[in-house]
Amino acid sequence: MFRQSKTVHQKLRNIRFQWQNPSWRFRSTSATERALQYQEGQKIHGFTVKEVVTVPDLFLTAVKLTHDNTGAQYLHAARDDKNNLFSVQLRTTPMDNTGVPHILEHTVLCGSEKYPCRDPFFKMLNRSLSTFMNAFTASDFTMYPFSTQNGKDFQNLLSVYLDAVFFPCLRELDFWQEGWRLENENPTDPTSPLVFKGVVFNEMKGAFSDNERVYAQHLQNKLYPDHTYGVVSGGEPLAIPDLSWEQLKHFHATHYHPSNARFFTYGDLPLEQHLRQIQEEALSKFERTEPDTAVPNQPHWDRPREDHVTCSPDAMAPDAAKQNTLCMSYLLGDITDTFEGFTLSLLSSLMISGPNSPFYKTLIEPKIGTNFSSVVGYDGSTKEASFSIGLQGMAEEDTEKVKQIIVQTIDEIIANGFEEERIEALLHKIEIQMKHQSTSFGLSLASYIASCWNHDGDPVQLLKISDSVAQFRQALKDNPRFLQEKVLHYFKDNTHRLTLSMSPDEAYLEKQVKAEEEKLQKKVQALSESDKKDIYEKGLELLSVQSKIQDASCLPALKVSDIEPTIAVTPVEMGTAGGVPVQYCEQPTNGMVYFRAMCSLNTLPEDLKLYVPLFCSVITKMGCGGLDYRQQAQQMELKTGGMSISTSVNPDYSNMDMYEQGVLLSSSCLERNLPDMFHLWSDIFNSPHFDDEERLRVLVMMSAQELANGISYSGHMYAMTRAARSLTPTGELQETFGGMEQVKFMKRIAEMPDLTQILRTLPRIKRHILNPLNMRCAVNSTPQKMSDAAGQLDNFMSNVASNKKDRKPVRSDITKRPLDPLAAPGSGPSRKLITEPNFKPCQMKTFFPMPFPINFVSECIRTVPFTHEDYASLNILSRIMTAKYLHREIREKGGAYGGGARVGGGLFTFYSYRDPNSVQTLSTFRKSVDWVRSGQFTQQDIDEAKLSVFSAVDSPVAPSNKGMGCFLSGITDELKQAHRERLFAVTDKSLVDVAGRYLGIGQRTCGVAILGPENDTIKKDPSWVVK
Ligand SMILES: [Zn+2]
After folding, report:
1. Cβ contact 697:367 at 8 Å
2. CA dist., res. 1019 & res. 174, Å (int)
3. Which DSSP symbol is given to 830?
4. What is the whole-number distance in angstroms between the Cα of residue 211 and the centre of ligand 1?
5. Which listed residue, of 392, 400, 763, 845, carries a Cα 20 to 30 Å from 578's Cα?
6. Are strands 261-267 and 73-78 parallel, antiparallel or unpaired?
7. Residue 661 β-bridge partners
8. What is the distance in angstroms between the CA of the first residue and the CA of the last residue of the chain?
9. pLDDT digits (tens, 9 = 90+) for 34-62
10. pTM here?
């Protein structure tokens, strides 16, 4: 969703280092070389160069500057990557719970001096080819990043971002819409009761329906109680209505100033051009101030503290009697000490990651709880870092036991230290992360340096990862007890420690509702009659502003003619290894090899289908060959970048009732470790272990807990999956594998006292799935390594040949599609798709009651597959409806966090996210169809929708993922090009036409699903199935 708020617990420690290899660009002078020509002390457009440094590990040149007049700080990372990124971050340190930085983050994007139209941020989504646009509120900074591959687009977006941040309108109505307001429940009826409304108000109510979030917020507030980390930067829902518009403007004036700003640019566009534009459009209009935003260190406690909080009970919890959370948090050192931060984050991984870590052995394996507490390990997102360790899903009576175990484990670590091999595995992981390339490197970099830089740490030092690794090795060499001494200092001898427990309270939601009601009554009682009249009139004014046709012509825009007419071709080659078809794709993978295999489920008996996701999540974690599960985990960390299996359901591109079902094996490794990786796969194929019930139970508990926790965050995904279930065979299978049905199934398994029946089921599944006769492979590597990789793959296939067994497909209606797009039908290897000619789509409305105060609503309509001539029109249609109607009705007027429409898998899907409304939103979906059929949109709207669709179609693909669309779905470059041409050709006539034919009442077969709180309207309506 856009405008995510990352108020707490930013997972910056999980950062991955990704980039694109410079060797595949043909250019006389590279961006990194050009940047090396800057000189320390050089003046450019009001800035002075402070430092120029090459960072060979990351293939970049860093240029650090400061702005002469205002003191604004600037970092440029020059790198031969087309996906250029800009970000500006402000240090925002609130001292109350009103959510002022978060509401400000929303409100500045609602219009600015140069771009006074309403909501330029959302409008730019449709006027640009951006690969990323967003804004974040963290605990102590607010960040506005975007990225794009197009130079003109970069300038456009930069102009809009700069104006939004430094010259926003901050109109009272924007504050009302985005922050909070009192308004008549029905704005056109002055006699309807007054209620609280506002986007952030509802967003935060939704955010705090997530128990993990509640816990993380309390933990931070209580561990750092004395300054900005003691408050909720996103806003405590009931404190939000204490914020006034004046306070909001004052916070902007004191915090959104260049003297309090850090600018970051990344990519291959020239630095001077950025500097000139930033100077001319923003910085030249300011003088230096002395912002009072620094965060002081938290005074250290002289003795540990304990505290307790409550949350709402979770109906999906794997064990209803075990819903307590307990964790101990330790205050660590200042994050601006780069090497100390590096050491502590490595130390944290050694302590908690994987089955070989001490805390996994002492806390997870005895099965006292379902999983580690939601906050666990090193967290460097605050000025002083913290480390947390504990459990969720545990019984209250185990509290003392868990505390004891934590203390004992720390003693054991101090006594015994860590195995050398585990330290090597961790350093290998860092090497892989630096080599693996992905498409959002600039963004990863911006988030990686944000916290440290925010407190005046040196971002360049942070980028020199090899230096830290070398320093770490030296420290270990000089003092073998280096890590143990850190544990002694930061954990055993540390009196700034908080033990926080959380338990469910049956009356939690009720109390919340009551507290909101009281707050509301207090506000309402203070109102005079004329105040109420005022509120009514303002409500009407807001409604009329929201409903007005908007003129966005002040905003810059790309044109449809700026879009590349043809796609870049991805050459792949077909071959075989040991009789198994293989797709080879040569890519600049920077010394990595990526191996994937698709294994068909066509022979798997129907009654085993529900177990497939469980099979996938445990098969690489139970031990194999001569390795027990600990040794297996160790080998994987030492030799690979990860090995995993997941379900894969791919609808056919031309037939709605046809699909391929399988599991996808994914793995990667450094070139030198390829034989080891295939050896591990061979062991998994030939002799996986299925005998350890205790191990299985640990894995089952962890996944059941993860699934249960995910619902409040991804409720829209579950609603969409459920709504699609009765419409296509693919939809049905997707619900089985990844919908609410699967969540409930995993809960049932977690509740079973005896798992031996499951242990017996796993090898049955294995015999059907890990069978070379049902398999095809894909390898992405450098051209130099490809023939070696092919040889190794051939070896692997002969090692697993004994698993070859010809099994009959469960269904007879199998259609073969050639893997080689150029081959004649029937010749050569093929994908085997299942057809269900007798599938009858049917209407279905399902409601899942949930302990949330907000809803996730979805409606799905069966339409046409990818190659159908109408698909492109439906695609553009979904964008127009989202941008021009649904966003306004569901978010702006309805107060939901988000909502829209999209196409895929032969379906047209409406959804809303964290929505205060339920069935009303369904009627909004229907009204959007009437709106589009009446043709109230312009050519400009269509062009914008096209830009928005193409920015998704043309988003960069990492070398590791090139050719995967073709491998998985058989969608070739030719099919993509044909679709592209149909997208260009979409007209207003074709849009109105498809809206009528597919989405009109009577024409459609639709499914509906809602996840949300108890709902009387639905209860009384017999057409709903209540789960
Ligand atoms: Zn927000």
Report:
1. yes
2. 36
3. E
4. 18
5. 763
6. parallel
7. 649
8. 27
9. 888 999 999 999 999 999 999 988 889 99
10. 0.88
